[in-house]
Specification:
By secondary structure, this protein is mainly alpha-helical. The protein has 31 helices and 8 strands. The protein has 4 domains: 73 residues, no CATH class; 188 residues, P-loop containing nucleotide triphosphate hydrolases (Rossmann fold, 3-Layer(aba) Sandwich); 88 residues; 147 residues, no CATH class.
Amino acid sequence: TIVTPGDVRENASVHLNAEELACFLFNIWQFLLRTDRRLRVKSYITKGGEAYLNRIVHPETLLSGAAQTRRVNLLVRGFSSEENRTYVERKYERHPFPEPAYGFVRRDLDVLAIEKRLLSRGNHLLVCAKGGAGKTTLLNYIGAWWQTTRFVDQVFYFDYDKKAWTRGQIMTEIAERLLTSPEFANFQFLSEEIRQAVLCEKLSEERHLLILDNMESATEPNLSARNTLSETEQEELRQFLTELDNGESLVLIGSRDKEKWLAKKTFGDNVYKLPGLDPRNAFTFADRILKKHKIALCHEDADFQKLLELSGGYPLALEVILPDLKQQTAGDILKALEADNLNPDNGDTQSKTETILRSIEYLYSSLAPDARDIVNCLAPFTSVINGEGLKRYVGELRKQSALAHLPFDDMPEIIQQGTDRELFSPHPHTPAFMKIEPVLSYFLKNRPYTPDTEEKHHAAETGFRQYYGNMAQAVYHLMVSKGADKKVLSHILIRPEYENLTTALNFSLNTYSSVGNLYRVLSNYLVIMYKNELRHELGNTVLTGLEGYPGESLEDAEFVEIVADIGSRQLLTGQYPEAEQSYQKALGLWLQNKQYDADQIKRKSGVLYHQLGRVAQEQKQWKRAREYFLKDLQISSEYKDMGGMRLTLHNLLRLWISGRDNELPEAVTDK
């Protein structure tokens, strides 16, 4: 039996079985989809945006066509345990879409244009937009909406502003979610080329969505020096995306640039240039900002209309400029902007990035000189700031002679002003942290420096490095403590701060400073999170950085420990030549150490000889393995280290069994 909306109108107390209820709801859903589609097509054709779902068609209007005003008595039951499990799994597998501070203004024209291009011109699309246009918000909305409506199954989001995602990392992330546990275990043992073939075949047969956002960071070191891909990594990524061409899965690439290096055999000329909000949506968005800040509506003001025009419909520009209407008139703000040649009559609204950056410049220039210097001290942060740790950071800044005179007591007020303009916002998962608007971070990091500001810039980096060095030391003690709650706390603290800790590590390497605490925390965190590739990259970064250190600095036991730890990671992952090189370097540094007495140096060297023996043993270099193990055994015996002797004798036994060295037992006896 098919129950139609007409049946419900005739009898408002229809009792439905499961099949009839499903059919009824399906008919209602089809009706809603047809109505939604007609309105969006009308909006697309007229270009004027007359059809706004949130203004013209309300849910009760749509449903009245199905049930009019009579009560529908639908008898439903609760979920079975299996149904509830499926529901919960689907709910928490959905792509997250955090509600923006002023709500999300639906961009139906843009969504429709993106869908049309993907379905008619190829499954790769570049969404090109300038900073602050709302590109990232729109891409996340599309991912959540398409998954909710089952247009796609899974959504995979990779943000190159946060991390330089390589082909291998992307494939691992996707495989962990698409493959079963046994399949994923087998997948990890395959070569990267075979992994690509296996995964691309699956993605080509199933409808998923891959979003690669802020792709400009992967190739432009001026924007994100630590998130760039090498030429080899770029080519590997291009090959991976090329293999997905014409498959079922969809690929959305978000960028400020044209990404010509990636275009061939992927999106080609399938590019959508994301504009700002159309006039009506810009008006709606501005209205929300004014109401939130309790500013009297000034819609009829000609200067206010010019401000909207000046913004180009770009959300960030509106968020930065409009809150100032609480202290100034629209005319006053326009005069200040005209001084920077941003009057809309000059045609500068076409330069979207310049508009947004100059909007921030306007706010920045309105601050007193000392307040600007305080804001500049936030430049080293990436993504988040720990609000509760801000006082300790300020304490480190006060120790710098170039910054000691600044009124840091005003820091909370300055942060609040930025929060009011959505340049800072609460972290969605960790309330103690604040998120930084990426364009603000870009603005602060790329300002030209005078000799005076250059000195303050380096002082801020020093304070940042010392603050995170101290924090890393405290967090490391939590990580290695016996209490489970302390270990959990350390993970909570590190997760949002990972980029900041990495930045502090790079500052330390650039200034030939101590990196022990920072390296230990990051390395241990990556072990816990099973991020072996990232740990490999971390080790290579540190080894490369240590190459530039003065020789006397490297004799410190801290650096020996770091190099030996990197060697251990290389040994575990089968990188035997690299592991041998690291252990040899650690041994050489340790034997040259002048801070410890001869006994301490000799005793510690036994551990390094033992590790060199293990590396040689894994490579079946029996003679070299024997030499290293016997040196370790002699040192352990001399210092009566029974635990060390047992471990070394065990490895010598394995060596004797594998190498069939008949002289080995006698050599062991001599030691």
